[in-house]
Amino acid sequence: MKMQAEVIREGELEKRSDSLFQLWKKKLVVLTKDSLSLFPDGHKRAKGKELGFGSILKVDCVERTGKYIYFTIVTKDRKEIDFRCPDQSCWNASITMALIDFQNKRAIQDFKSRQEMEQAAGYQ
């Protein structure tokens, strides 16, 4: 049974579709310390798409227009996912800060694991 992660933020974002017309579609978004989950039509009851922070490289291409902030999430396999949010909502900052926190914690874990392996090798 998967435990529910603590929600940092929940709300609405618009995601650009991959279709030919590239229409903007509203999504209910749930940000946790480990992932960003997207739900169609604003319902968590529907099956959502989870973007785990382990698969995200960066938040990029932040651009502000009069009404919206546009930004792109780049995955480790170089897929780009475009989003926009109302100017004052600062979703891009929330996602970026959660991603940086995740990456820092992972780097510390990796460093500690390497140290432990080196120490264990040194004792043999």
UniProtKB/TrEMBL annotation:
InterPro entries: PH-like_dom_sf, PH_domain, PHLA1/2/3. Pfam families: PH. One of its GO terms (biological process) is positive regulation of apoptotic process. Residues 6-124 form the PH domain. GO terms for cellular component: cytoplasm; membrane. Signal peptide: none annotated. It comes from the Eukaryota. One of its GO terms (molecular function) is phosphatidylinositol phosphate binding. SMART domains: PH. Its main location: cytoplasm. Belongs to the PHLDA2 family. This is Pleckstrin homology-like domain family A member 2. It comes from Geospiza parvula.
